[in-house]
Amino acid sequence: MIPVFKPSYGKEELEALKEPFETGWIGLGPKTKEFEKKFAEYIGVKYAVATNSCTAALHLAMKVMRVEGYEVITTPLTFISTNHAIVYNNGIPVFADIYPDTLNINPDEIKKLITDRTGAIVAVHYGGHPCDMDLINEIAKKHNLVVIEDAAHGCGGEYKGQKIGSLGDIACFSFHAVKNLATADGGMITTNDPEIYSRLLKLRWLGISKDTWAREEKDRKYSWYYSVEEVGYKCHMNDITAALGLVQLKKLDRMNDRRGEIIEKYNKGFADLDWIETPMVKSYAKSACHNYVIKAKERDRLNIYLQEKGISTGVHYIPNNHYQMYKNCRGETPVCEEVWTKLLTLPLFPDLTDSEVDMIVERVRRFKE
User: Fold this and answer.
1) Which of 250, 283, 307 is the last residue of a domain?
2) pLDDT tens, position by position, 17-56
3) Residue 6 within any structural domain of the chain
4) Residue 52: domain span
5) What amino acid positions are annotated as catalytic residues?
C-alpha cells in the first residue's frame, strides 16, 4: 500500500542522534534550545518554545491567551486537538463556517458570531494554505480579540511573503510523524511577546522557574535551586526530538518544494476530469503543501476503490461539531456540512516517486471507466 503520509528521513537524521546519545543529555537541553532559536529565526519571530506535541502547544497557547470563560471562534474542519485545547482551558468553542475552496475559516462568518463574550479567534491553516490573515487580524483588532494560529499543517507556508506562524498573537506547530517537519512527535509555540515567552517556558515544565539546562548553563555547574511560581504541565520537548528537528528544518524548504512538484503532477493529471475538484491556492498564499485533498461527489466509493488498488487515502476531517461533546456549541456551518462529504486526501510526501504519482493518477482516472 502507498501510504497517505510518510516522513522523509535519511542518514542525516541518524547522524544527528549521535550527539545526544554520546553526551547523555537526552532530556530538555542544548539541542532543544538550539532548535528553538533556529526555528524562531526561520519563522521570523523573536521567540519559540518547544513542546512534546502540538496538542500541548495549543493547550499552553490557549492558557497564556487567557481564553477561560470566553467564547473562542474556531473552525469545525480541523483535528480535534484544536478545539479540545479550548475546552482544556474552560473556554467555549463557537464554530464559524469555512470557505468552500480553501476550506479555511471564513472571516465574514467570524463577524456574525462576535459577542461581548468573545475572547479569541483560532485561525487553522488547513492543509498548509494560510487563512486570510489581514481580514482576521482586522476583525480581531476592531473587537480587541487575540488571534491564535493553529499552524499544525503550515510549516514553511507563507501569507503575502510572511511565514505562517508570525501572523497572529501566538502560533502552534506540529512535528508529528505525518507533518512536513517530522520529529516523530513534538510541537512549537511562536510569539513576539517577551512576557508570554517567559511564562510559556515555565508552564511547559510544571511551573518551574528554571529548567535543568538553564540552571547548568547559567552557573557553569549544576544548580539545584529553582522556584515554582504556578501550576504548570510536563510537556517540554527533549533533545532527541530536537536533534531530528534541526535536521528536518534544514531540509524543510526542499521537502516542501518536492511536495509542490507532486501537487503540480496531480493537478495536471486531473485537469480534464469534471468530477474532481482539485485544491485551490489563492494569490496571496504560498501553501506549505501539507496534504492533497480533492473533492469528489462519490468520495466513499472512490475511497474503497483506491484501497483495493493499493492506494491509502484519508478524510480530513469529520467536522468537530458532529461529535457529541460539541453538538451544543453555537454556530451554523452549512458550507462545511456540504463540502466535507466530498473530501478525500490522496498520498503526498516528499519521497513519493514520480512513477507512484503517475500510477495514482492513472488509477483515479480509471475510476469512472
Assistant:
1) 250
2) 999 999 999 999 999 999 999 999 999 999 999 999 999 9
3) no
4) 11-250
5) 179
CA distance 212 to 214: 6
Q: Model's pTM, two decimal places? A: 0.96
- Amino acid making up residue 82: T
Give bridge partners of residue 73 from the DSSP assignment. 94, 121
Residue of 275, 273, 318 lying closest to 295 (CA atoms): 275
The total number of structural domains that make up the chain:
2
pLDDT in tens, 46-64: 999 999 999 999 999 999 9
Q: Do the domain assignments include residue 274?
A: yes
Task: Record the cell numbers describing residue 79, joined without a space.
Answer: 483535528
The stretches of 81-121 forming alpha helices (DSSP H) are 81-88, 107-113
Work out the angle between the directed axes of helices 54-64 and 81-88 (0-180°, nearest 10): 40
Strands ordered across the beta sheet of 292-296: 276-277, 292-296, 343-346
CATH number of the domain to which 103 belongs: 3.40.640.10
Q: Which of 229, 250, 271 is the last residue of a domain?
A: 250
Task: Give the separation between CA 242 and CA 16, rounded to whole angstroms.
Answer: 10
Q: Estimate the crossing angle of helix 239-270 against helix 354-365, to 10 degrees.
A: 50
Q: Which three cell numbers stand for residue 134?
A: 489581514
